């Protein structure tokens, strides 16, 4: 990926705070008492954070992402490989941060992922959405539900339940909480990636999208060593 294409990604995905579509008062979630660097647990009434890897790890890698964002799509293969390599040593969390003012299908995609999560398949839907980003990004509102429902069918979900859960209050509240966490941290664009409360620099994000994510892996290795662990051997 060329520097020019990365610049295009940055222009598309980076937004200023004044341009964000903020949550309505009705949907606002108070996260003032919560630590964004920690995973939120599942409850009887609320969806918890989806954690890939060792949920008890002191090293927590968090992505604030938008399924329709080209930059997030560009970072996806590297993040997928990294979370697989480090799964025994870190907790990886994906939080929804759909930029609805520039990506009209992003919120619907987040809803599809969270609805799949209610059947235990968040990560499979997460991967399918990124792998097929070009196929659904430009579909109109009357078609996108059919597209996402077909994905649900392909991974063996109960399609009837999936379609019901697309309008679930639990799902909308989960996405609202994810966005509120991002807003608390001052996230203004995607992908925004954190190790704990430390945000990756623009240079590190560029490496994640354009390269192999080596700069991120270097930081993860350091964090694991500081926590008393031994980083995995890179291929």
Strand order of the largest sheet: 1-3-2-4-5
Alpha-carbon distance between the termini? 22 Å
Please indicate the percent range of residues in DSSP E strands (runs of 2 or more): 5-15%
Instruction: State the total count of DSSP E strands.
Output: 5
Task: Figure out the total of helices.
Answer: 10
Largest sheet: 5 strands, mixed
State the shape: globular
Helix content bin: 40-55%
Write down the overall mean pLDDT. Answer: 91
Helix-strand topology string: HEEHEHHHHHHEEHH
| Computed CA radius of gyration, to the nearest angstrom | 17 Å
Q: Which structural class is indicated by helix and strand composition?
A: alpha+beta
Unreliable runs: 14-26
Report what the structure shows.
The protein has 235 residues and is α+β, with helices and mostly antiparallel strands. The protein is built from ten helices and five strands. The protein has helices spanning 3-13, 70-85, 106-117, 122-131, 133-136, 141-154, 159-165, 169-185, 202-210, 214-226; strands spanning 51-53, 60-65, 91-96, 192-195, 198-199. Strands 1-3-2-4-5 form a five-stranded mixed β-sheet, sandwiched between helices. A hairpin with a 2-residue loop joins strand 4 and strand 5 (198-199). The model is unreliable at 14-26 (pLDDT under 50).
Quickly describe the structure.
The protein has 235 residues and is an alpha+beta fold.
């Amino acid at each position: 990926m060329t520097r020019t294409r990365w610049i295009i990604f940055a222009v598309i995905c980076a937004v200023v705070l004044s341009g964000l579509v903020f949550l309505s008062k009705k949907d606002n979630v108070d996260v003032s008492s919560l630590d964004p660097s920690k995973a939120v647990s599942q409850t009887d009434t609320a969806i918890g954070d989806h954690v890939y890897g060792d949920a008890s790890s002191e090293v927590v890698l968090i992505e604030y992402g938008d399924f329709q964002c080209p930059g997030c799509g560009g970072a996806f293969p590297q993040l997928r490989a990294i979370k697989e390599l480090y799964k025994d040593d870190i907790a990886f969390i994906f939080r929804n941060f759909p930029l609805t003012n520039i990506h009209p299908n992003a919120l619907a995609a987040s809803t599809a992922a969270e609805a799949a999560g209610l059947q235990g398949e968040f990560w499979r839907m997460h991967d399918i959405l990124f792998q097929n980003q070009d196929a659904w990004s430009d579909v109109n509102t009357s078609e996108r539900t059919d597209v996402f429902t077909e994905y649900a069918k392909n991974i063996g979900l109960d399609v009837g339940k999936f379609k019901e859960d697309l309008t679930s209050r639990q799902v909308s509240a989960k996405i609202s909480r994810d966005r509120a966490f991002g807003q608390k941290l001052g996230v203004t664009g995607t992908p925004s990636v954190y190790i704990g409360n430390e945000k990756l620099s623009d240079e590190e994000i560029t490496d994640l999208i354009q390269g192999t994510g080596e700069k991120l892996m270097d930081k993860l290795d350091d964090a694991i060593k500081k926590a008393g662990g031994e980083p995995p051997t890179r291929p």
